[in-house]
């Protein structure tokens, strides 16, 4: 849009057209998306809807028949066609300039790169395959060119995402692509190695625990990519994992975690879990707590199960009451918070490399290799005079809280 002369404005009053990007993953997200569309219509009146909920156009039309257009996920051209139809561009060759790194919604020093769309898994709680289809990997050369362009424009951290990042290339049968005249296999290990050669931090998200994840951990131990592994495990009870259609050998999972840590002692493990899944008994939940105590994961997100329209899990028997879901979620997070705080205490006295995100009057806020933006903790740096966002600095940790670390510049 910027390249075509459109100006992005921060308020409804200043806008000639509003584009609402929606989520349709869980019922609460659908409700929020519909509310946002309604707000945009009330405040502005000229609204185009896109994103995941757009795959269910009739749901949007039933609630808000006056929207100008509805497109689904991964529909850039359709969105642009709708914008052109309702607000034709006025091209100005003197002002329609795009910076080398493109237009990003993140700060200048970090960027997300999506390497694939869709998913081949069929987890019973999820409707992503029905909304976004099966796995479709981007050519390795295209991904690497985008990454190279971003790093050249000042990006210091590349966050690699997909619905199933570790499956990258399966749909293309790992065919060979080319970058800088060199062959590159369309496979996550080879892609990660090449991304790591660009001189920026490389952080992997949403890594399903396939056997070849062991190779990624080896790259982390070599310092090629950040020692940060985001593996959504979802539960620890074999019966619940079976109902979810997830890997169910939890003893094997514990052994792999031990092996990963032996390979890469500085590894940060992040995971997500669902409590209150249909059929979850007290025994199932206790198995989950026991796993958390033994695994001692560094970063954990947990959610009370929420039914999703169209998900297979809706037909499972013995739903858990909302009250019990919330009680279990509270118990789970209380245990994990204590583990997290204990693990952060181990970092007091260490000196870490920190990427500065923001500089205030008295202190700066940054992240170490263990901290992804928005979802993990921060490193709060005292005596931050002279620092700038995007700098990599060495920080000696002086104190730790439940989620954040506190420190000062090494030698300061």
Describe this structure in words.
The chain is α/β, with parallel strands linked by helices and 412 residues long. It has helices spanning 27-43, 57-63, 76-86, 128-132, 140-152, 188-195, 213-222, 238-244, 250-263, 282-295, 322-345, and strands at 18-22, 47-51, 69-70, 110-114, 116-117, 136-137, 157-161, 176-179, 182-185, 201-204, 228-230, 268-275, 299-304, 351-359, 363-367, 379-382, 392-400, 405-409. The strands form six sheets. The protein has a five-stranded mixed beta barrel with strand order 14-15-16-18-17. It has a three-stranded parallel β-sheet with strand order 1-2-3, with helices on both faces. Strands 4-7-10 form a three-stranded parallel β-sheet, covered by helices on one side. The longest helix is centred in the last third of the chain and has 24 residues, at 322-345. The chain is globular and about 60 Å long. The protein starts with 17 loop residues before the first strand and ends with a strand.
